[in-house]
Amino acid sequence: MNNTTKNVETMANPFLGYMYKAIPLAFDESLSYYETLCRLKQIVGESITTINNNAEATKELQKLYNELETYVDNYFNNLNVQKEINTKLDTMTKDGTLSNILNNELLTNINNKLNLVFDKKIIIIGDSYAGGATPDEDPSVTSWERLLRQRLGFTLNIDAWSNNQGGTGFTTSTTWLQLLQNINTQGHDNEITDIIICGGYNDRNATEQAINTNINNFKIYANNTYPNAKIHIGFIGNTTNTNEKFKIGTMARIYNNTCKSLNIHYLNNVEYVLHDYYRMFTSDGIHPNQTGQNALADNIIEAWLYGSTHVIYGNQAINSSYGLIQTMLDNNIVRISCTSSFPPRVEANNVVCSGGNAIELTTIEYGHIIGNPNSICSFSITGYAALGGGKYKLIPGTITIEGNKMKFYPILLNDNENGYYQLTTNQLTFPKFSAVFDSIYN
């Protein structure tokens, strides 16, 4: 037994042998049974040599692996993260890398923006977003309006005037026109260069005609009172309430189209900023938290100074259970995908597949998609229902995002395709998928 074990690691030397062809074999090109055995012996001998060489390589590989494992364990056990960071910063300081980043990149970007606002005097109009309102009246939240002034060096009542009030919009009981009329620039009317208006949530139930009329009235007053000012309007309202999503998306489009028709600068793409639903909102799902306010300020500044902004949010898992399903956003496009070789599945007792019944797959807890009751966010897919004994049945249907839920609607037609039949399974599996939607409604 011990000899057998030893031979597995290093086999014996190849067999030595000699075959002498005897008459009549020497006069025949075919191989006899004896010659075949001799040839087989030669091949076995060559194989033994190869196996012995591989065994030595395997031992060396195992040795290197053990050394690597020891190095990694010791590295992380002895790792001082702060020391490593300090050492890296010291190196970057000495070789000029840090200075280059600060001076040539960060400061250059800041200086460029400051140059664009040099000698500008502005008016900012907004709703509760501009006031930094939160449901718990958190005083630590700094609004996008204040952040804009701070980052660009504007001083209130010197070169910037602001008026904001919760619940206001172009068509509300207290309108943005009234907020503008209440501003007193202390004789600087002719020096005002820009009027920035951002909001929109409170206009979500208005008609397109009402929006058009009231924005036009705002424009007429602004042009007469501040003849050198350019008007900039941005729709930034959003919510995690899926029942309001379609109205919010529709109103964003109306704002944009109305501005174009009235030759007013629309702050392109700011309507997509608050589409990180689970990181940017306070508990009421309406008002942005500090993360949301920061994002609004950055993108409103970008759209104001450069004509538009580009909102990109990278892949984010929809929840901890379904980490393989991710969403990403690029302005008006939102994508949901599962590109892993491990597809999502539902495992439960007695999942019934029929026609039109909803099977809840999971809850969306993170990401950039929330769906709405109009079933706009849906795509066709074919699932696999386990039948037992290693057998599966194809189940065509659609996956829909609605009310923070991912649901599957099976369409299981009977053989005559004139009705549905029911199939009960305890495992429903789906293949990899990728679907793209208009982010404004989702």
What does it look like?
- The chain is α/β, with parallel strands linked by helices.
- The protein is 37% helix and 22% strand.
- It folds into three domains: 2-68; 120-310, Rossmann fold; 333-441, no CATH class.
- The protein has ten helices and 15 strands.
- The strands form three sheets. The protein has a six-stranded antiparallel beta sheet, with no helix packed on it. A five-stranded parallel beta sheet has the order 2-1-3-4-5. Strands 6-7-8-15 form a four-stranded antiparallel beta sheet, with no helix packed on it.
- Helix 6 packs across helix 10 (290-306) and helix 8 crosses helix 9 (242-261).
- The radius of gyration is 35 Å and the shape is flat.
- The two termini are 69 Å apart.
CA radius of gyration is 35 Å
CATH domain class name of the largest domain: Alpha Beta
Distance between the termini: 69 Å
Oligomer: single chain
User: What is the number of helical segments per DSSP (H or I, 4+ residues)?
Assistant: 10
Strand order of the largest sheet: 9-14-11-12-13-10
Mean pLDDT: 81
The CATH architecture of the largest domain is 3-Layer(aba) Sandwich
How much of the sequence lies in strands comes to: 15-25%
- Helical residues, percent: 25-40%
CATH topology of the largest domain: Rossmann fold
Order of helices and strands: HHHHEHHEHEHEHEHEEEEEEEEEE
Q: Find the CATH superfamily of the largest domain.
A: SGNH hydrolase
Which spans have pLDDT < 50 for at least 5 consecutive residues? 1-11
Q: Give the biggest beta sheet.
A: 6 strands, antiparallel
Number of domains as seen in the coordinates: 3
